[in-house]
Amino acid sequence: xxxxxxxxxxxxxxxxxxxxxxxxxxxxxxxxxxxxxxxxxxxxxxxxxxxxxxxxxxxxxxxxxxxxxxxxxxxxxxxxxxxxxxxxxxxxxxxxxxxxxxxxxxxxxxxxxxxxxxxxxxxxxxxxxxxxxxxxxxxxxxxxxxxxxxxxxxxxxxxxxxxxxxxxxxxxxxxxxxxxxxxxxxxxxxxxxxxxxxxxxxxxxxxxxxxxxxxxxxxxxxxxxxxxxxxxxxxxxxxxxxxxxxxxxxxxxxxxxxxxxxxxxxxxxxxxxxxxxxxxxxxxxxxxxxxxxxxxxxxxxxxxxxxxxxxxxxxxxxxxxxxxxxxxxxxxxxxxxxxx
Length: 340
Hints:
The protein is of the alpha/beta class.
């Protein structure tokens, strides 16, 4: 009989690709949705890549409530906890931290009760980054972001505290033989399965639509969603991965270089992509007087902090693809799905 893997948050961008790849590799998959009405959305997305009939099942469970998690874990061998609480503009720290931290603990408690072999939890590279906004530097999994740093945006603080709470739970509770591994991705791009939830690739959609009049001096460590799923699955089964954190950040790329790659690589389809640079001072002025949402990116202007993925490469044999390929594959997928 095939092993069953539970993927949390089945309607999510990363979760959809996790489900797809698990099915391709012969696993049975159960995934959580907050409402049974969302099941068809997941099935339709996955069916564009693989036939899910008979091997994909659903459980109704929400990170903000205890109900449904015991049933979701029944008969499960592994858990990929990739779900994140939905946020809205101007989230406060509590709006994000409480559901992220408490939701992770709900998943871990139910998994331990069901004698799950291993939980692989999706954290973020922002949970292993220096608190100071130096312009250069390379860090690895031994570093923890300081959640007490008052300059942290709520999202970054929530991801750090949620992961920290997960490790504390494993250390301080009797979880039997259950193991925990965490994966810390950078900016996730790549092809989409559906337009119902395009996740982080929305920034590329905005570029293609011509909605970005200029490009700020922001750099991203780009990981393809397919490579991110691959490292999750390697972390799920590798004996060497038990009790480890793995950065999965991919190649560093300035947004200006992303825009140029889209403009040059797509021909006429990339004609609306702006390659005009926006000076740092203009971004800061706009953040202060016109668009408060820009305040979260101003500390990252000109910053080229990077993360080492040597651990994932060495222990798991992980090999991510070039960032430019992910950006172009993402754009072509958005165009093919009529999302731009």
